[in-house]
Amino acid sequence: MSEPDLNITLGVEEEFFLVDPESRDLVSDPDPDIFEACERERGPHKVAHEALRAQIETITKVCGSVAEAREALRQTRRLVIESAAKHGVAVMAASSHPFAEWQSQLITPRERYERFAITFQESMRRLVVGGMHVHAGFGDADSRIRVMTATRRYLPLVHALSTSSPFHGGRETGFKSCRLSIMGALPRTSMPGPLLSRADYDRIVAAYQRMQFIETGSELWWDVRPSQDYPTVEMRICDTCPRLDDAVSIVALYASLVRRLLQLDGRGLLPPDPPTEIIAENRWLAQRYGVLAFLGNVWGGGGRVDIQDYAARLVDELANDARDLGCEDELQHVLTIIHDGSSADRQLDHFRLRRLEGDTEEEALRAVVDLVIAETRKGIEVDA
């Protein structure tokens, strides 16, 4: 069996919230000039409206390396931050806003979103969340499906690293990521079952279409899926990371995983898939506990494994792939996230510290917004 082509392209989508810097609440009906300014200055990247008017999405250009993806993310973040600042609006990169009321949000006036609002009703109206999606382009249509299936066991770990939505509606949710729970109220979300070929995937899409459940595969909102528009596998499980370094580390981890699994696929050596139900249980543990989770051992032997031990082992296994991709430091940063905590940990610590120092709940929640805004700006070199 011949060695596969190991070239990998990358692209990243990030969904941001637009915030009033005085009240720290979401700007439910932002000035359209913010989006128009982003469109004028976007360069090789793309910007898009999201389901809520208080959100904006960026899509990087196709990148040939993790280093190029880092620079692309720096550019897209700077684009949104500076465009919003010119209209007196701040930007936060997190997957939930600490206290915004979903009842106050407005749906973006686009046919697609208005149709979803009619169909999904309150499930759609409560969807005050955003995420980060990472695209990896590689191989042929069938190898992409096989590698996609093989990535599923790793997705709970990747999600734990990204967690940034511990608050919702002014409350601590008890989860490091409430986003996945809120998304779960919609159909066709969560972990896909094992697929072995593009034909398997096409049959599922065709069945949904025959029953008039979906128009295209873009309405399968799985944690990982084949892209509708590009020859990529799109990892969708991640929360949006305030810190650029954390986001890039996740891109490096995904790219290194894809490279390793693509090699194994080319040799016919992909390991057997764990039951989807067990992967889903680990997914829930990652939502609940983030980088403090003890995950079920889906790599053999049963029992539970400390996420720190598991991540250290995986980083070591992927060291050669990261070296060949030029992202050794970014992959090592995975261990820094686990040691220092994800955004969710920092948000909760900051909230509790402010309460201990005498802030009211409302004041402490506003301080969390300030923390996330500051982290979103860090390292982006924006104009004041």
Account of the 3D structure:
The chain has helices at 32-41, 66-85, 111-120, 122-125, 141-151, 155-162, 179-183, 198-210, 244-266, 276-289, 307-317, 319-325, 328-340, 343-356, 361-377; strands spanning 9-19, 46-49, 55-59, 90-92, 132-137, 167-168, 171-172, 189-190, 221-222, 224-226, 232-238, 294-296, 304-306. The protein is of the alpha+beta class and 384 residues long. It has a single domain, classed as Creatine Kinase, Chain A, domain 2. The chain is 47% helix and 14% strand. It starts with 8 loop residues before the first strand and ends in a 7-residue tail after the last helix. Helix 9 crosses helix 13 (328-340).
- Taking all Cα atoms into account, the compactness measure Rg is 20 Å
Question: Any guess at the CATH architecture?
Answer: 2-Layer Sandwich
Low-confidence stretches: none
Question: Count the helices. How many?
Answer: 15
What percentage of amino acids are in beta strands?
Answer: 5-15%
CATH class: Alpha Beta
Write down the secondary-structure element order. EHEEHEHHEHHEEHEHEEEHHEEHHHHH
Helix content: 40-55%
The main sheet comes to: 7 strands, antiparallel
**How many E-type strands?**
13
Q: Could you say which structural class the secondary elements and strand pairing correspond to?
A: alpha+beta
Distance between the termini: 56 Å
- Under CATH, the topology is which? Creatine Kinase, Chain A, domain 2
- Taken from the alpha-carbon principal axes, the silhouette is globular
Roughly what is the average pLDDT, rounded to an integer?
A: 95
Secondary-structure map:
Layout: E1 9-19, H1 32-41, E2 46-49, E3 55-59, H2 66-85, E4 90-92, H3 111-120, H4 122-125, E5 132-137, H5 141-151, H6 155-162, E6 167-168, E7 171-172, H7 179-183, E8 189-190, H8 198-210, E9 221-222, E10 224-226, E11 232-238, H9 244-266, H10 276-289, E12 294-296, E13 304-306, H11 307-317, H12 319-325, H13 328-340, H14 343-356, H15 361-377
Parallel strand pairs: 8-9
Antiparallel strand pairs: 1-3, 1-4, 1-5, 2-3, 5-11, 6-7, 10-11, 12-13
Helix pairs in contact: 1-2, 2-9, 5-9, 6-10, 9-12, 9-13, 11-13, 14-15
